């Protein structure tokens, strides 16, 4: 049986990743000792195991840059991007559908699909909306049934960015959508706002209930959140929420540029699922899967190391590692 071109490319990618990154999977029962070994600094290179692993992974960046960004580079879409250097790959971007009757419709939004550990395109990662893309943002939420929106900035940061996209009270309208605030509650480390979205142009009286979670444990000038345990708790709440939703629902994760913070939430979710469903931890593989869709995700060694911290925090939430032994 002959291999097709896509299969050859897939095998080549796997071989290259293995050559550059080595074997990075660790059995759950060995994670604690592995983290201790990785934390030791090499007296010659002044780097620890986390840094070495991240540097090896970064060598693959050239391979991941091979995808095309034609739609994001078009002149008509230039003003819809916060940063010219962070664009969605053509093969991984969601296309807006609910605005198709509008003039000059391109269906473009600066967003990418991200796989979870067990489901393709489980997450949608996007930048905070600009004033001119507010209706596009809500079109994205509506079209892909994003019943959960995770916002990776605290309230003050969002205010400074002038990027609040939901009403503090009553109803606001953006394009063909009305967004109504239903309730607000303060939880441990985050704020939850419940919203009701309606498409005003549709004849059917359909609506979408959306939970907006706003993280409050990641200060503006810090590279990682303050509390791994709260972060893990939020991921657990997300998993419970998704279990109650229809199979075609998505989780939307957003931060200022759609990269510098959003990837950490997705990576944390992947790492937790690895531990729970496979009995192993492979941070390198988790981060590689993210960077294939958007190379700017997990942009530094601090966030990469924090993925290990999240794994340890997740394991600490169980009384015994025996739960994961196969």
TrEMBL record:
Residues forming the Tyrosine specific protein phosphatases domain are 229-305
Q: Keywords assigned by UniProt?
A: Hydrolase, Protein phosphatase, Receptor
- Pfam families found in the cross-reference section: Y_phosphatase
What Gene3D superfamilies has UniProt attached to this entry? Protein tyrosine phosphatase superfamily (3.90.190.10)
Catalysis: reaction(s): O-phospho-L-tyrosyl-[protein] + H2O = L-tyrosyl-[protein] + phosphate
Query: What's a single GO MF annotation on this record?
Result: protein tyrosine phosphatase activity
Where does the Tyrosine-protein phosphatase domain lie?
50-314
Top-level lineage group: Eukaryota
Organism, as annotated: Pelobates cultripes (Western spadefoot toad)
Identify the EC number(s).
3.1.3.48
Checking SUPFAM superfamilies in the record gives: (Phosphotyrosine protein) phosphatases II
Q: What's this chain's function?
A: Tyrosine-protein phosphatase targeted to sites of actin polymerization in response of varied extracellular stimuli. Has tyrosine phosphatase activity towards various tyrosyl phosphorylated substrates.
From the Swiss-Prot or TrEMBL record, give the protein name: Tyrosine-protein phosphatase non-receptor type 20
Which InterPro entries does this entry report, sorted A to Z?
Answer: Prot-tyrosine_phosphatase-like, Protein-Tyr_Phosphatase, PTP_cat, Tyr_Pase_cat, Tyr_Pase_dom
Lineage of source species: Eukaryota, Metazoa, Chordata, Craniata, Vertebrata
């Amino acid at each position: 049986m002959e291999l097709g071109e896509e299969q050859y490319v897939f095998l080549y990618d796997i071989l290259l990743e293995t050559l550059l990154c080595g074997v990075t999977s660790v059995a759950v029962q060995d994670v604690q000792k592995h983290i201790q070994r990785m934390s030791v600094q090499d007296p010659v290179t002044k780097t620890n195991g986390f840094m070495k692993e991240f540097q090896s992974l970064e060598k693959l960046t050239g391979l991941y840059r091979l995808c095309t960004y034609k739609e994001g580079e078009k002149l008509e879409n230039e003003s819809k991007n916060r940063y010219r250097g962070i664009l969605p790959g053509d093969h991984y971007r969601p296309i807006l559908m609910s605005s198709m009757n509008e003039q000059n419709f391109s269906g473009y939004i600066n967003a990418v699909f991200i796989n979870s550990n067990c489901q393709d395109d489980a997450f949608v990662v996007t930048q905070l909306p600009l004033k001119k893309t507010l209706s596009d943002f809500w079109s994205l939420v509506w079209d892909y049934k994003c019943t959960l929106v995770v916002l990776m900035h605290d309230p003050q940061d969002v205010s400074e960015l002038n990027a609040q996209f939901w009403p503090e009270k009553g109803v606001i309208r953006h394009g063909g959508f009305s967004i109504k605030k239903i309730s607000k509650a303060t939880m441990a480390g985050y704020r939850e706002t419940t919203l009701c979205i309606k498409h005003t142009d549709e004849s059917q009286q359909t609506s979408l209930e959306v939970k907006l979670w706003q993280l409050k444990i990641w200060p503006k000038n810090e590279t990682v959140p303050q509390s791994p345990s709260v972060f893990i708790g939020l991921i657990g709440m997300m998993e419970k929420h998704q279990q109650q939703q229809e199979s075609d629902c998505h989780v939307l994760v957003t931060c200022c540029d759609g990269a510098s913070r959003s990837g950490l939430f997705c990576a944390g979710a992947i790492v937790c699922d690895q531990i729970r469903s496979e009995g192993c931890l492979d941070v390198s593989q988790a981060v590689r899967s993210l960077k294939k869709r958007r190379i700017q995700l997990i942009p530094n060694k601090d966030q990469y190391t924090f993925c290990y911290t999240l794994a340890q925090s997740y394991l600490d939430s169980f009384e015994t590692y025996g739960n994961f032994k196969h």
